[in-house]
Here is the input.
Amino acid sequence: MRNFTLTQLIKPEVLQQIQDAFSDFTGLAAVTTNADGVPVTRVSNFTNFCTNIIRGTDIGLRCCQKCDKDGAVKTMHSGCPVVYRCHAGLIDFAAPIMFNGRMIGSFVGGQALPEDLDDEFCRKKAMEYGIDPELYIAEAKKAVITSPEQVERSAKLIYDISKALSSLAMQSFSEIEKSRSLELAARSQSDYIMDVISDILKTAGGYVHTAREAIESGDPQKMKSALELIANEGSGTTGMIYDSLTYLKMVGKNFQMNEDQYNPHATVAAVVDNISRRLESTGVDLSLELSDKLPKLLLGDAGSMCQLIDKLISLSVDHGGRNITVSIDSTKSCYAELINIKIVTDKLAITDEQLETVNKLMVEDNDFAVSGSFQELGLPLARSLLHSMSGEFCLKRSGDGAEYIITIPQLEVKGGAV
Here is the structure.
């Protein structure tokens, strides 16, 4: 998930309206800042003491920004509103605006006093900031004196507002990503279709040339060999066309996951056994290793996961693998069960540049257009499946062979099926 700033997700004018409404309702000052404590809105109901006296100095401004940020960070860590004394002695409260577990801004309010400030404290601060002490004291005493009960209510309100803004930021991100996905799909479909058509035409042309040579030779053995070649390679072309049709359906509409409870041992064993039978005539040896750490029951899209395993085994065969091992285990990460799938092959007949291309096509958010050999044509579908499950992918060399490594988060279901 890409990083966004607060104002990229929520327009400043929306933040301003919410902030002004809070300030009008409570009579307190308010400002919205970015993650570094720098305001992204105009201040609301700020006292002259804060706006011109304190923030009018470089030292005071830096201290104010640090206070705004520190207050929001404290709230983020504690999970509840935080009321604190700012560096100048006023009461403030802040709450973080969150996105994807990261603080992208803060909502800050306050500039109130529970009682008059001590004159000696004011003189000390005035000297620290380079401000006339008498002016400092006179302006500080103009701050609103607020009861502890009002401070607590206002802090709770500001916390609720920050949570609403966090939800708004996530909703805005979803809309941005949806729009971006549609744009990418529209831009890449034509390129992808042209690549597929080009490769099919080349393949068909090769079939015609092979068949013509065999017929012209009049040699029955050459004719038989030509037919076998066309039949064997034709199955790959059929798979390529199927992948292309599936891909076009996926980018033409929102791809929906089909999540359900499933037994990972039985499900994966069944799909690998089916692939193994399909590969019997090719001389490929396919084995499966399932860890005892795998939960008995998971919640997730088992169909997409198995389809992804199928595609990557086919890719490893196309890349020269003849002895292939599929090993699957799992590790715990917070609430998720990370399913670790490793496909190990004895051969990897591609260049380092092609290996890098495979990794980029599977991971990066670039166009889906695929160029080059047939071996890469299953990647758009594999990548769509991987991304729909928030999975991670890596292809790396291992001796003469390779390791295809996939990690997919699922949820463990305890207590049996419902």
